[in-house]
Specification:
2 copies of one chain form a homodimer. By secondary structure, chain A is an alpha/beta fold. Helix content of chain A is 47%, strand content 12%. Chain A has 2 domains: 172 residues, NAD(P)-binding Rossmann-like Domain (Rossmann fold); 89 residues, 6-phosphogluconate dehydrogenase C-terminal fold (Orthogonal Bundle), CATH 1.10.3660. In chain A, strands 3-2-1-4-5-6 form a 6-stranded parallel beta sheet, sandwiched between helices. In chain A, helix 2 links the parallel strand 2 and strand 3. In chain A, helix 4 packs parallel to helix 5 and helix 7 crosses helix 11. The longest helix of chain A has 28 residues. The radius of gyration of chain A is 22 Å and the shape is globular.
């Protein structure tokens, strides 16, 4: 199979970029994979693991001769990277990114790109709570959605080619405009993350319940929040600072609903609570039917994460 | 191995009771298991599946001659059940429950129990988003905590015997007083559930983002909330109505913190956000070290819940 791109440059080598490297290699999608990262430590790990065919010291060097450049850095760092690589981009190259926010990335990146390249922003809706160059794996994008957000006047063929790359890595691809993307993600990702961070912060900060109690008894629901709240702090700081309006809009709606439920608890309105909790069950069912989550109880989580294989012997009575 | 109890009566046959039946049978903890449920449908399923040794039509009948009676009904139904079984309890029997709230259960149940029985409330911190008599499995309690909340003057031997039963089913057991239990659970379970229900409700109700978008793109974080928000509506209505004070206290703290983070987003205070998001990571680590969750990315969730095993072929460029 011939590759979709001859040379792909990955700028930043965290969870998404390292997963792309594994996936492109496994399915023969790139002739050569060049990578670079801000820290010497990450570059050293990438070299040691053979993550890319070549690891360069700078982004300017990495993009030379690449027909696809993918910015895989936190949203707040995209503008500076674009300014650095702009003069070194090959004519006809496609520049893309994997940022969780699209309007702010387009505003930050586009002004630095020469006319002779195609800018096709994208966002794979995939990730785990782990980060860094060793967190990646080839199947991360399988059956997940990748949203391509063509900038105004994006070349149709460049968009189609990027779509083939993402489909080759197992993703389903949709196109969407930047503002709608940012609102959809505020609902499906950004606000849920902020809420999870907040709940975990509250638990951590209580005087009357100890941390060891919170940790021991977390299986009752709380631990699901801690997974989300373990995501990369820099990435998420940048998401909130760069998708401010949509996040604040959805947070406003969330607070309004929360107050309505809080009031129902205070006044003892069991019917309202029951009706609300019944309605939310249907969405879960739809997500499982759409293949976006497992129906196994508890996400199919192992019953004995600590490695026990036998229950304790029952004591005699 | 001799059983811990000669005859155990399970009142209500949902997820917890059916898991207890499987576990007690597998590990030989009960001489005989008798069960009953409110609806004829549940009783019929239990009979068809052979879930218990005997299924009775009424709770009064089920408790006759039992040396352990476990109330496994929603918290709001406990008082009525206690009134019904009170006159039929055998002298020396232990009455326990599995309710997620303890103060309200004690207040509702204790007045109906005769002096010749031991009342030892308990709460296994285990569950899944599934409910009903077919949702149970023997390993549900393995490596999970069960909190025993002895009522004032509980018999020490009765408490020790109930502890052996739960340990026999694989649980770790702690003792705690009722008010502290209700506060700890408000943090680790009740407030997180209310927040998850609210977030899912907001997403369901938005006009500008369609439900199909929410469902397709849920893997970005939202889907974890939907699992929690798929839990049994009746059980959760009763939890909030019966743990009102503690839940409202924690909700108040949550809202306060959420407003602080919201303000940081509005004013662009990236340092505050970054510091907050860094702090919450540590709790996740502790939960994994305590064996209360898996460290596998995404809870070890299968990458292809829809059953795909091969990625799409990469299109040729």
């Amino acid at each position: 199979m011939s590759p979709v791109y001859d040379r792909v440059a990955l700028i930043g080598l965290g969870l998404i970029a390292s997963s792309m490297a594994h996936a492109m290699r496994r399915w023969g999608l790139a002739g050569e994979i060049v990578g670079t990262a801000r820290t010497a430590e990450t570059r050293a790990i990438a070299r040691e693991d053979g993550l890319c065919d070549r690891v360069t010291e700078t982004a300017a060097e990495a993009v030379q001769g690449a027909d696809l450049v993918v910015l895989c850095v936190p949203v707040g760092a995209m503008g500076a990277i674009a300014a650095e690589i702009g003069p070194h981009l090959a004519p006809g190259a496609t520049v893309s990114d994997v940022g969780s926010v699209k309007r702010a990335v387009i505003d930050a990146v586009a002004p630095h790109l020469p006319d002779h390249v195609h800018f096709v922003p994208a966002h794979p809706l995939a990730g785990t709570e782990h980060s860094g160059p060793r967190a990646g794996f080839a199947e991360l994008f399988k059956n997940r959605w990748c949203l391509i957000v063509p900038a105004e006047g994006s070349d149709i063929q460049a968009v189609a080619r990027l779509r083939r790359l993402w489909e080759g890595m197992g993703a389903n691809v949709d196109e969407m405009d930047a503002d709608h993307h940012d609102l959809v993600l505020a609902v499906t990702s950004h606000t849920p993350h902020l809420i999870a961070y907040t709940m975990v912060g509250v638990a951590d900060d209580l005087r009357r319940v100890t941390n060891s109690e919170v940790i021991k008894y977390s299986a009752a629901g709380f631990r699901d929040f801690t997974r989300i709240a373990a995501s990369d702090p820099t990435m998420w700081r940048d998401v909130f600072l760069n998708n401010k309006d949509a996040t604040l809009e959805i947070l406003g709606r969330f607070t309004e609903e929360l107050f309505a439920l809080q009031r129902a608890i205070r006044t003892g309105d069991g019917d309202l609570l029951h009706a609300y909790f019944t309605r939310t069950r249907a969405i879960r069912r739809s997500i499982i039917e759409a293949g976006q989550d497992t129906s196994a109880p508890d996400f199919g989580r192992a019953a004995t994460p600590a490695g026990e294989t036998q229950p304790k012997q029952a004591a005699r009575s």
